[in-house]
Amino acid sequence: MNTRLIVGIARSLLLARWRQTLVAAVGVTFSIAMFITLLSFMNGLNDMLDGLILNRTPHVRLYNEIKPSESQPVNSASAFKDSYNFISSVKSGVARQQIYNSGPIMQAVKNDPLVLGATPKLSTQVFYNEGTIDITGFIFGIDVEEEMRLFNFGDYVTAGTAIDAQNVANSIILGKGLAEILVADIGDVVQVTTAQGERFPLKVVGYFQSGIQEYDKVQSYASIATTQKLLGKPANYITDIQVKLHDLEKAPAVAKEYAQRFSIDAEDIQTANAQFDTGSNIRSLISYAVGITLLIVAGFGIFNILNMMIYEKMDSIAILKATGFSGRDVNMIFLLIALSIGFFGGMIGLVFGFIFSVIIDNIPFNTAALPTIKTYPINYSPVFYFIGGFFSLITTYFAGYFPARKASKVDPVEIIRGK
């Protein structure tokens, strides 16, 4: 049968019941628009949360974990060689937190083609002195330039300049919550006491705000040289090596390789943030489930409208079949009607979904906990639009398949005789 003729008939049936067609198309449009908006917003939210945690977390962390010694003196005594020794209250061995041969390890890691960059880190517990009160906290010694390049450290410095921690001697960047407790302004000097009892004055050159309030009340940052001076340690003393890879998914394998290669403890980002990653996946799953449910509901609407159209157009279907149209041609006509509704409704829905996303993306979102976030987060990934368009066609196809099949089996003799 002439394809052009089939398209013309489908168009005539669509326009003959244009109100019902419009209702069906609006249902698809609304479903697709909400699907795109929901996915864009939920994945934008996931990206924002990932940025708060994962951007500040190394893909692989190399360190020496403090753990009980595997070999106890009693096991080396010849008198107890053939005995089973049960030891209670096992204490940690003589291992130190310092990474041995940190220089060669750093060089070997940086030469690895899988590695984007590596930076040393030194952490120490201190007491911030506020009058007669000592406030427990931590100072992280970092290579500021590398930390800014690899982990976006500068984005989280809300006042002052991050690089000043490296350029200004004996300086510190306080956590925003800690600065409020100490009532310390930029340019002030805070007194810090180390665990060894040494007291040092440090100049405040900035505020750091991670978005996690409990962290910002205890942690601060200084250059590695300043932190080593606090502890009275040499220039090669570091406790961590932070590694960032080109491919995040390779972190578990790389961590395992480095642990064996350098005889050191290694932790990958997936292990360190397993619970957080699970939460992101669940949120994405929920948003996809809700969006697809909206499309299925729209599909049932199209199914009902096509069923009603077939019931009301029995005479027209009978005449078509009586004049030479096959059941396949009739089936094609009603499938074309359903796909037309899905295509045009879906395309308009994609446009409205993009418009709604842009509107949300420009709504101000100001909170003290997230200083780097100015508007609600939106992810404009083309994948969402492809999935939305694909599902609009698939849903409407199946919504039209069964009514079209019913129309193709109409017996024109029975319809005409009944009239």
Structural write-up:
There is one protein chain. Strands 2-3-8-5-7-6 form a six-stranded mixed barrel, surrounded by four helices. It is 54% helix and 17% strand. The protein folds into two domains: 3-54 and 276-418, no CATH class; 58-65 and 96-272, no CATH class. A hairpin with a 2-residue loop joins strand 2 and strand 3 (133-142). It is an alpha+beta fold and 419 residues long. The protein has helices spanning 3-16, 18-53, 73-76, 102-110, 144-151, 164-167, 176-182, 213-216, 224-231, 251-262, 269-272, 274-312, 314-322, 327-361, 382-408, 412-418; strands spanning 60-63, 115-130, 133-142, 157-160, 171-175, 189-194, 199-208, 219-223, 240-245, 265-268. It has 16 helices and ten strands. Helix 2 packs antiparallel against helix 12 (274-312).
